[in-house]
Amino acid sequence: MRRILLLRAVNVGGANRLPMAWLKAALTDLGCTEVVTLLQSGNAVVSGVGPGIAGVLERRITADLGLNVSVLTRSHDELAGLVARNPWPDRVADPKSVHVDFLSAAPTKAKLATLDPAPFAPDECVVDGTEAFLWYANGSGRSKLTNDLLERRLGVVGTARNWNTVTKLLTLAGA
């Protein structure tokens, strides 16, 4: 089964520098097969392992690079289901305005109640299970509806990807 690995807050330079060549080699060393990375921001698609690879990779990153990086994972079917559940299929014509924040767990009802959408208008957020769908009317760069805010309000770890990246990862996972 193909698994999609999403690393939170990694960069090619500066803080939390994690080269994709290192990631690919580490994943191969950890028993992953058919390893493919996408972009330079911590996206990988692998075969041969289960969801437990996330914790194993987190520990490896800490041991080898001294970084505290959260790793979230989804199966091909989970990612396909997420794409099918997009609450704004008509908005993907502008795929950089539609994002998905992958969450480490589904937030509780009490935590969801803290997410009042009014202060973020015209931006929108729909939390559906372990994903938060985000629509940025004027782009994500100026929005107050950030991954950090979602993590604080929902009490979970999250990492966001734009719709282009989500669909590219699904294509890679289906290969």
Helix content, binned percent:
25-40%
Tally of extended strands? 8
Structural class: alpha+beta
* Major beta-sheet overview: 4 strands, antiparallel
Shape: globular
The unreliable regions are none
Number of helices: 6
The ordered H/E elements are: EHEEHEHEHEEHEH
Roughly how many Å is the radius of gyration?
Answer: 16 Å
How many domain regions?
Answer: 2
CATH architecture of the largest domain: 2-Layer Sandwich
CATH-defined topology of the largest domain: Alpha-Beta Plaits
| CA distance, first residue to last residue | 11 Å
CATH class of the largest domain: Alpha Beta
Average of the residue pLDDT scores: 92
Task: Put the structure in a nutshell.
By secondary structure, the protein is α+β, with helices and mostly antiparallel strands.
Note down, in words, how this protein is organized.
InterPro entries: DUF1697. This protein has 175 residues and is an alpha+beta fold. The protein folds into two domains: 3-77, Alpha-Beta Plaits, CATH 3.30.70.1280; 80-174, 2-Layer Sandwich (Alpha-Beta Plaits). It is 32% helix and 24% strand. It contains six helices and eight strands, in the order E-H-E-E-H-E-H-E-H-E-E-H-E-H. It has helices at 20-29, 53-65, 76-84, 109-112, 147-154, 163-174; strands spanning 3-7, 33-38, 43-47, 71-75, 98-103, 124-128, 131-135, 158-162. The protein is globular. The model has no long low-confidence stretch (mean pLDDT 92).
